[in-house]
Design a protein that fits this description.
283 residues; alpha/beta; 7-stranded parallel beta sheet; 14% strand; globular
Length: 283
């Protein structure tokens, strides 16, 4: 049977490739974008198989209305893809309150509204698959990405919790953690060039150069093959909770997690000291 998808952030990038991959194999897609005109080519190519929806994920009422419309239009929802988001870049000292709040409104709260809107329909069906686009930055922290990483780390926890809460209803959850993908002009995007930048403080210019150099060395993935990999995940009877898309960050992640475990192990005496040993009468 063909599947019905609801995909946010469908105008470009990975989201657009996900939509096209689903439609090209005969699935139906409710595709959302802040400007529905960006979806006109999809409608022209796939006709009634695609439902274009103009929606900003930060507008909770609009999200609930769009999910309801998609369900009523197609009769069911099988795959819900939380893809919409952006990267706010800047050192912690450079960020304004508005930077951080806007980042969380889009990346975190926007995803939560979609989840909350879709869950009643998925529970009623007794089936469904929620796909959350996170990032390798949802697993590790690097300089100049504090706001973006905070939003992605929060999404990791939100969706791991969700997976445990909805498993008994037949609903699956998968968090996709992409590295760099050539979504613009065939190149691996430079987060310092393509993200939203805070007003730079010259004291961090050297750090910016080092981060840009690191990003430039990461292999760029092909978004079209990423879309095909996603099809395999949504077709799986036992999909993973988490999966990296791309190989560039895997060695770094191995080292980061090994270092964390070693630090906790090395500090066991201090951990025990912090715990203390209260007498029964002190409890």
């Amino acid at each position: 049977m063909s599947k019905v998808w609801f995909v946010t952030g469908s105008s470009r990038g990975l989201g657009r490739h996900f939509v096209e991959a689903a439609l090209s194999r005969g699935d139906k897609v409710a595709a959302t974008a802040r400007n529905s005109a960006s979806l006109d080519e999809l409608v022209a190519a796939y006709g009634n198989a695609v439902l274009p929806l103009e929606m900003d994920v930060t507008d909770k009422a609009a999200v609930f209305a769009s999910v309801q419309r998609a369900k009523e239009h197609f009769g069911r929802l099988d795959v819900v893809v939380n893809n919409a988001g952006y990267a706010q870049m800047g050192a912690i000292e450079e960020l304004t309150e508005e930077h951080l709040r806007d980042q969380l409104e889009t990346n975190l709260f926007g995803a939560m509204w979609v989840i909350q809107a879709a869950l009643p329909y998925l529970r009623e069906q007794g089936a469904g698959h929620i796909i959350q686009l996170s990032s390798a930055a949802g697993l590790i922290a690097m300089p100049l990405g504090g706001a973006y990483q905070a939003s992605k780390w929060a999404l990791e926890a939100l969706n791991e919790t969700l997976a445990q809460e909805v498993a008994d209803f037949g609903i699956k959850v998968t968090v996709i953690e992409p590295g760099g993908f050539a979504t613009r002009s065939g190149k691996n995007p430079d987060p310092l060039a393509n993200g939203h930048m805070a007003e730079p403080n010259p004291i961090y210019d050297g750090l910016r150069q080092r981060i840009a150099g690191f990003a430039g060395k990461q292999p760029a993935g092909d978004p079209a093959t990423a879309a095909q990999a996603l099809l395999k995940i949504v077709d799986s009877d036992n999909p993973p909770l988490r999966v990296l898309f791309g190989l560039g960050f895997y060695p770094l992640l191995q080292q980061v997690y090994a270092d964390r475990l070693k630090t906790w192990a090395d500090c066991q005496d201090l951990s025990a000291e912090a715990h203390g040993n209260l007498n029964q009468e002190d409890r």
